[in-house]
């Protein structure tokens, strides 16, 4: 802009000089008698050059940043997807549900003859890392459609009208490139529920999205796929049929799906013949597809770090610990007293988990990882979708057992139970507010009730946790010697696996048996 101003200034001077010389050509004066034809041509040439420079210098006024002057292409990642359903492990029921949409795009004429309309939108919702983006790419790959990716945050701007313009641009591109898949990741960034306190620009962007999804011509094979982790935040107008016709929950994989996902992520890796993918799948209950991919990658990295040519089960176990518990702290400066406290704490968790048979204890460790000085890795004996009230209460007891062990052995408690208390309180709160498993009766409590009756809820939650804490103390007191045995082995070896824990229990049981009396 400064450069153009300078050129403009010289151009004005050149134009003035040129007009004066032209005037002098028609009405000669003594003042310019010394100017020859060559001098006049030089002035006119310089003026012409300045005019050309001025017209070719970019001078778009930027009252706001370039976001308004230079159109941002919201669908810049425009390409044919090379992902198919063969690359998507697990999620069989979701793939089957999507086959109809895929067939609609590939064979739209047979549906049109029957008067059927293509679904306008598909909404994937569920926890992060479960494969929502991968599914959208697979739909585009199966239909050979143009894949237009956009993140919800790309449409959010503080300048009024910019977000709405980007939405229009994205849909215009999709119509030109049809058949096309528009994938909007984290759609809750622009599709959040509108209210009196919401941002005006955000509302305009959402309104434009609603209009575009409503305004599709039935002849255009364009499908919008949205993905979100928070379905509860989305505006009702966006969720209605005619906009997002299909709502598909993409949850964490079950044991069979985890096995398939691990097979996909390990097929190009040199695995030891002794590795059992099924057992690894059982150890990773509740993990998402992204976490499983991370475990397979971490196992390979650990094998390289150890200068090994193949990946064994030891690397996979280390990778699971790395993902679940965090990075191992090298050369930790922990006091002997603290180490003993951690050993008793983790032994308390393991002891009560074993006694109540809530989960299979995979490993106990007092090797610091991340912010934790110790941890117990557990996984359920079988895949569960429903939990009884007694099972939830047992889970709370196991979580509080570490703190109970500290109090019973040292007559003192530490800050080490912070995470356990949070988890135990969350379970108890769900029992009271969502599952109707308290003295408040068989009702689910909504937000209004919880806001104005927080004291009532707090009393119910405290009643549950206090009872479970007493139960944990009683169990540990009855098995105090066994607790010390587990803690002593932990202090000596720093880790205990499932088989070693079984041996400790078995040796303790044998030591308590009365001596056999020989007959005769």
UniProtKB/TrEMBL annotation:
GO terms for biological process: protein catabolic process; proteolysis. GO terms for cellular component: plasma membrane. Its cofactor is Zn(2+). Keywords: ATP-binding, Cell membrane, Hydrolase, Membrane, Metal-binding, Metalloprotease, Nucleotide-binding, Protease, Transmembrane, Transmembrane helix, Zinc. InterPro entries: AAA+_ATPase, AAA_lid_3, ATPase_AAA_core, ATPase_AAA_CS, FtsH, P-loop_NTPase, Peptidase_M41, Peptidase_M41-like. ATP binds at residues 126-133. Its main location: membrane. PROSITE patterns: AAA. It is an enzyme of class 3 (hydrolase). GO terms for molecular function: ATP binding; ATP hydrolysis activity; ATP-dependent peptidase activity; metalloendopeptidase activity; zinc ion binding. Gene3D superfamilies: 1.10.8.60, P-loop containing nucleotide triphosphate hydrolases, Peptidase M41. The keyword Ligase does not apply. Zn(2+) binds at residues 345, 349, 420. Its EC number is 3.4.24.-. It is found in: Cell membrane; Membrane. Binds 1 zinc ion per subunit. Residues 118-254 form the AAA+ ATPase domain. In the central section; belongs to the AAA ATPase family. In the C-terminal section; belongs to the peptidase M41 family. Acts as a processive, ATP-dependent zinc metallopeptidase for both cytoplasmic and membrane proteins. Plays a role in the quality control of integral membrane proteins. PANTHER family: ATP-DEPENDENT ZINC METALLOPROTEASE YME1L1, METALLOPROTEASE M41 FTSH. NCBIfam families: FtsH_fam (TIGR01241). This is ATP-dependent zinc metalloprotease FtsH. The gene is hflB.
């Amino acid at each position: 802009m400064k450069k153009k101003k300078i050129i403009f200034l010289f151009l004005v001077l050149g134009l003035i000089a040129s007009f004066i010389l032209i005037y002098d050509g028609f009405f000669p004066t003594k003042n310019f008698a010394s100017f020859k034809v060559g001098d006049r041509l030089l002035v006119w040439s310089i003026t012409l050059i300045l005019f050309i420079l001025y017209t070719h210098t970019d001078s778009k006024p930027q009252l706001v940043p370039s976001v308004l002057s230079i159109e941002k292409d919201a669908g810049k990642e425009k390409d044919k997807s090379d992902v198919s359903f063969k690359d998507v492990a697990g999620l069989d029921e979701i793939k089957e549900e999507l086959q109809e949409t895929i067939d609609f795009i590939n064979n739209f004429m047979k549906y049109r003859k029957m008067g059927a309309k293509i679904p306008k939108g598909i909404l994937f919702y569920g926890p992060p890392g479960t494969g929502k983006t991968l599914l959208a790419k697979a739909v585009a790959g199966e239909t050979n459609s143009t894949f237009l990716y956009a993140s919800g945050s790309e449409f959010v701007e503080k300048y009024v009208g910019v977000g709405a313009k980007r939405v229009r641009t994205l849909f215009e591109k999709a119509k030109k490139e049809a058949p096309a898949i528009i994938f909007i990741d984290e759609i809750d960034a622009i599709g959040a529920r509108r209210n009196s306190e919401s941002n005006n620009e955000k509302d305009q962007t959402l309104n434009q999205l609603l209009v575009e999804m409503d305004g599709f011509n039935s002849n255009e094979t364009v499908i919008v796929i949205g993905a979100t982790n928070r379905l509860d935040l989305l505006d009702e107008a966006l969720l209605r049929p005619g906009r997002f016709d299909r709502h598909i929950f993409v949850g964490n994989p079950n044991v069979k799906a985890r096995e398939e996902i691990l097979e996909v992520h390990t097929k190009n890796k040199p695995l030891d013949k002794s590795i059992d993918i099924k057992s690894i799948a059982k150890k990773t209950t509740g993990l998402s597809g992204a976490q499983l991919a991370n475990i397979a990658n971490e196992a390979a990295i650990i094998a390289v770090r150890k200068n090994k040519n193949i990946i064994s089960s030891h690397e996979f176990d280390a990778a699971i610990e790395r993902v679940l518990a965090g990075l191992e702290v090298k050369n930790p400066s922990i006091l002997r007293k603290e180490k003993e406290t951690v050993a008793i704490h983790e032994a308390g968790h393991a002891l009560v988990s074993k006694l109540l048979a809530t989960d299979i204890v995979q490993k106990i460790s007092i090797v610091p990882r991340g912010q934790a000085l110790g941890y117990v890795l557990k996984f359920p004996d079988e895949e569960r979708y429903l939990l009884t009230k007694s099972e939830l209460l047992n889970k709370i007891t196991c979580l509080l057992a570490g703190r109970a062990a500290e109090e019973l052995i040292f007559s003192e408690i530490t800050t080490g139970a912070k995470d356990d208390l949070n988890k135990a309180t969350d379970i108890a709160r769900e029992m009271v507010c969502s599952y109707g498993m308290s003295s408040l009766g068989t009702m689910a409590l909504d937000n209004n009730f919880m806001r104005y009756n927080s004291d009532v809820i707090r009393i119910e939650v405290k009643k549950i946790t206090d009872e479970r804490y007493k139960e944990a103390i009683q169990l540990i007191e009855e098995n105090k010697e066994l607790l010390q045995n587990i803690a002593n082995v932990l202090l000596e070896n720093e880790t205990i696996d499932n088989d070693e824990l079984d041996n400790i229990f078995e040796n303790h049981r044998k030591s308590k048996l009365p001596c056999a009396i020989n007959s005769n």
